[in-house]
Amino acid sequence: MGAASIKPSEAQADVADNLPPNVPEWMKAQGAPVLHPAYGVPSPFEADVVRRARSRARMSTAASSTTPLQDLHGIVTPNGLHFERHHAGVPTIDPEQHRLMVHGMVDRPLIFTMAEIMRFPSQSHLYFLECSGNGSFAGLPSTATAQDTHGLISCCEWTGVPLATVLAEAGVQPHAAWVLAEGADGAGMTRSIPIAKAMDDALLAYAQNGERLRPEQGYPLRLFLPGYEGNMSVKWLRRLKIGDQPFETREETSKYTDLMPDGTARQFTFVMEARSVITHPSGGQTLDGHGFHEIAGLAWSGHGKITRVEVSVDGGAHWRDAKLQTPVLPKCLTRFRAAWTWDGAPARLQSRATDESGYVQPTRDMLVGARGLNSGYHDNAIHTWGVLADGSVINAT
Amino acid sequence: MGAASIKPSEAQADVADNLPPNVPEWMKAQGAPVLHPAYGVPSPFEADVVRRARSRARMSTAASSTTPLQDLHGIVTPNGLHFERHHAGVPTIDPEQHRLMVHGMVDRPLIFTMAEIMRFPSQSHLYFLECSGNGSFAGLPSTATAQDTHGLISCCEWTGVPLATVLAEAGVQPHAAWVLAEGADGAGMTRSIPIAKAMDDALLAYAQNGERLRPEQGYPLRLFLPGYEGNMSVKWLRRLKIGDQPFETREETSKYTDLMPDGTARQFTFVMEARSVITHPSGGQTLDGHGFHEIAGLAWSGHGKITRVEVSVDGGAHWRDAKLQTPVLPKCLTRFRAAWTWDGAPARLQSRATDESGYVQPTRDMLVGARGLNSGYHDNAIHTWGVLADGSVINAT
Description:
The structure is a homodimer.
Chain A: H1 8-11, E1 52-53, E2 63-66, E3 84-86, E4 99-104, E5 110-113, H2 114-118, E6 123-130, H3 146-150, E7 153-162, H4 163-170, E8 178-183, E9 190-194, H5 195-199, E10 203-208, E11 211-212, E12 222-224, E13 237-243, E14 258-259, E15 265-266, E16 275-280, E17 291-300, E18 306-312, E19 320-321, E20 323-324, E21 334-342, E22 347-355, H6 364-371, E23 384-387, E24 393-395
Parallel strand pairs in A: 4-13
Antiparallel strand pairs in A: 1-2, 2-3, 4-5, 6-7, 7-10, 8-9, 8-13, 10-11, 10-12, 14-15, 16-17, 17-21, 18-19, 18-22, 20-21, 22-23, 23-24
């Protein structure tokens, strides 16, 4: 970028010439102009900070990609790094031709244009979104990074219209109990939403982190159900049908249920329970010497606010409180941090989240004991990173 | 993107074929795969939502570009749309070769690598950043948008190390009162910072909205001074010199002072005082018919939290309170909203912010009366948008 304006003799300078007390080469020339480009992009030195595919997908349109948690700071996920999970790829939708239908048990069936939806009063909230499959029940290799183990979670400021506002326009009938949400993708993604959630904090979201939704996040319109498993926040939302029973779509019968050890399946396990992960130090990173290191990570709960995060450096034998970055917001990522002086001995790093309902994140043994290993969904167990004597960090779960 | 996978016969379908009750063409095919691309980009239908150059620059490396406030929602500015202001363009800096020197009135002069800086305890905060030249004292045409009138402001979650932490390592001497901050750009941008601010909430920032700083925001390291005029948050930070007097650099003598009516200049006017702007409806937009419209906008203060925003639809004759989106954070943008039923008559829309210090945003007459028209900096006057009978919105300030 700016390098093009550096004279060849300077570009060939020794690295040491750029170190103090010398004036570095990039101070001896004009840099890149403004609007280079008009919509900015990351530094070329950060080219490794990208989403990555999960290995388990059999086709690239029914697949997922993960957020590089190990390289991020704070709680906001840049839109370009928000995880993806699609069932039939990302449709290209002209917003002028997109419509939202509301029908079923309503007094007035309605069809809205995007302009009509955006005319309603709006709200903005920082919320996490997590795929129910964001887990490692199946086990991951010791080389796994935080992106591999926990990368199906992201956090943005979402703006939209309360779903309750639009349902009030249509006039929901007294015995209505469920809402079918349908996406305008090739999968016709459909889920049943309890009417109580629809009337509570559900949003018809059209913006994320200030700008309009990204295509892979449902442009031009998605449902957003704070704290619920991600697939229910139906993208490319085209239809809401009100009923008095769940609609028993394939995504809530053959998929997105939790097969238990006795062969029965838990259905409608909506809320993502309290969970946390240490992002630094984490798998694939290396501690640069003994002494002070900051342990940093993320905690979240679909039930509300995180009230406490504890960390352990000895695999759960001893715990101490981490500091929570304020503001702590409900159904949002919370950044936690704890000071650690590494003495050079091998260590086992863990974090444990508690939410405002009093729920405490379980150990893996507790979770597997209760749930078995038949299901890949709703893994919220305490995770372990191993720190080896040479400072390298490995997945130890 | 996904359009490439649509069969020609479908691609030629009539627009009406995509409207209810029909199933739109983009539901009849697989869409784009995941990681298309690995670092995501906005929808092609949002190609107009970009930064734009301000007209007054004489060269493209000593120039500014503006955030499209009229197209944004909530408070977060996506990194790709953060405003720019450079004095010698954007340098391309290899983070491995970047150093921060701390010297002057300290016990231990120090030179830090980026890895060393990032090892210190960190903090994350949502803060606005506003250029002191974000104003329209000189007058703008009736066609001006919110991007033209107020676009030199953005808001991100910034992560970094408290400057106080690094100064404590160096050991600041008792009579120190000022810190010189120098950028590693071709302009050698330098400003003097009061030691009290350096010890308060100043950050050595290395990340914005989760990811590492963008090149045009100072990659790999910038100073961040919450609530202060933007140019003091020195980008590409390479040097901090501690002294007992301000350093009287060119950017605080010939520039970035406020020339008063009597010919004297105000110097060291650091804090950006309370201000607000209505972003919808705003210049260049058109109201789509009479009836309900949501007035939405942004308010901020370098002194802390916004406590109140009032709106007027009759040019300031009558005011009523807007609703503030929570959480309201200090030195951060606050989104305000107010319901409005437009009766079709011409209207004059204004907003007025109050902050926790009790300061109330002034009218333009009050500001010009106190400050005159010699200076282009620190314009925080109440702004007026005119709504014409045909629904079009014009700049009326």
